[in-house]
């Protein structure tokens, strides 16, 4: 299954909800996270919405549009998601493979995180646990 495809995102959801140890680590995840991946295979941009409640993943939605899409122009809003991370598909791939740390990607301008940092920082341990879990789901890039 392709990285960040509907199938892969649903596999992530299943693993999150079947892993009580993860749910303990991610108990602070009680909000929506958006991932915006640009320039995906097939010439699309992909907007993925993860909706969490107390470490459980209630839903995941994947929406794709031809690149460059209007997803890139929509400003982040706290009324829509707690945070939004934006990067190219290649950048997300490097992060998932462990070749690039998100903070390094941000410092190099490859990866952007929108949100209220004062609210996001206390939850970074839970967000990192989610990223680590995602990296365990087999996929093709």
The profile of the biggest β sheet is:
5 strands, mixed
Share of β-strand residues: 25-35%
Helicity range: 25-40%
Radius of gyration: 14 Å
Topology order in helix (H) and strand (E) letters? HHEEEEHHEHH
Low-pLDDT parts are none
Q: Could you name the CATH topology?
A: Nonspecific Lipid-transfer Protein, Chain A
The number of distinct β-strands equals: 5
Indicate the CATH class: Alpha Beta
CATH superfamily: SCP2 sterol-binding domain
Describe the structure.
Helices cover 34% and strands 29% of the residues. It is an alpha+beta fold. It has one domain (6-134): 2-Layer Sandwich (Nonspecific Lipid-transfer Protein, Chain A), CATH 3.30.1050.10. Strands 3-2-1-4-5 form a 5-stranded mixed beta sheet. It is globular and about 40 Å long. The chain starts with 5 loop residues before the first helix and ends in a 7-residue tail after the last helix.
Please outline what is shown here:
With 141 residues, the protein is α+β, with helices and mostly antiparallel strands.
Features of the shown structure:
34% helix; five-stranded mixed beta sheet; alpha+beta; 29% strand; 141 residues; 6 helices; Nonspecific Lipid-transfer Protein, Chain A
Task: Present the secondary structure layout.
Layout: H1 6-18, H2 20-25, E1 32-40, E2 44-53, E3 56-66, E4 83-88, H3 89-96, H4 102-107, E5 111-115, H5 117-120, H6 124-134
Parallel strand pairs: 1-4
Antiparallel strand pairs: 1-2, 2-3, 4-5
């Amino acid at each position: 299954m392709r990285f960040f495809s509907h199938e892969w995102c649903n596999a992530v959801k299943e693993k999150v909800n079947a892993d009580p140890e993860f749910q303990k680590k991610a108990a602070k995840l009680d909000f929506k996270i958006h991932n915006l991946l640009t320039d995906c295979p097939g010439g699309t941009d992909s907007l993925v919405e993860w909706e969490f409640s107390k470490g459980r993943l209630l839903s995941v939605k994947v929406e794709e549009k031809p690149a460059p899409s209007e997803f890139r122009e929509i400003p982040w809003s706290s009324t829509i998601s707690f945070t939004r991370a934006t990067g190219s598909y290649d950048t997300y791939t490097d992060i998932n493979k462990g070749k690039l740390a998100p903070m390094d990607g941000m410092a190099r301008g490859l990866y952007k995180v929108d949100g209220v940092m004062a609210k996001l920082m206390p939850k970074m341990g839970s967000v990192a646990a989610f990223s680590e879990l995602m990296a365990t789901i087999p996929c093709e890039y």
